[in-house]
Design a protein that fits this description.
The chain has seven helices and eight strands; from the N terminus they run αβαβαββααααββββ. It is an alpha/beta fold.
Amino acid sequence: MDNDELSLDDCPEKYLGIAKKLCETDERIRYLKKEIGNLIKIQKTHSEYFKDELRQELRKNYYQFLGHCNLENSYRVTIDKTSRTVQILDDFGSSDKQFLLLHFTGLHINRTSEESIYNWIRYEYAKVYLIVVAKAPSVEIEHSGPTMTEIKTELGVRVYYSCPKRLIPLQTEIESIFAKIDNLISFSKLRNAGFDVIPFTKAYEIGGQNSSNRTGYGSTWYGGECYEEGTLYGEVSSYYAVGLFVTLQ
C-alpha cells in the first residue's frame, strides 16, 4: 500500500464511515486513471490513423492536380545559363497557365537500350521538363530552397560533381527517377497523348525573383504612420517543383 493510501485497520470508529468513502474514492481514482490511460492509447491510435488517411488523401489530391498538367495549360520554355529567369517568371505570372514547364538540355542522360526512354530523351525524340507551380501543393515540402539561378546553371550536373548543397535534394529525386524512368513512363500514353507526367515524392521549394520583388529598396515614409513597404534587393518569391513532364517533339 502507498504511504498516502488510507487503511481502515487503525481508523477510529467514529471516522470509519468517512474513511470508507475516502477508500472508495481512491479506488475510483485508480480506476479512472487506468481508463484515461486506455483512452489516451485509443486516441493515439485514432490520431495516427487519421493522419495516415489525411496524408493519403492529400497525396491523392496532389496526383489528381498533376494529372491536369498538359500542353495546353502549361507555359513552356527552354532555359540555360544565359536565360533571364525574372522575365520567364513574369511571363508565367501574367499568363493564364497553371504550370510552368522548364526544359533543361542537362537532363538528357545517355543509355543504350533501344526501346528505353533514355534513348528517346538522348536523341531528342522526347523532352523532359521540370514542372513548377506558384502555389504550394498540399504535400510534404522540401524547404532546402535552391534559387532559379542555381537551377538554370546547375540542374542536371551529377550530384557527385559540383551540385550546390541546397540543390542536392531536388537533383537526387531527379536522379532517382531517371534510374527507373522506363518503369515510370507509360510508352502508350507517350505515343498516344504525346506526353506523360511523373510526380515527385514531395514538392521542392524554389526561390525565384520576379519583377514584383524588384519594386524598390526599403520603405517610403509619407509622414506620421503612413508608409509604403519596399522590397530588399535579393528578395524572392516561392515556387515549387512538383514533378517531371516528358513530351514528344
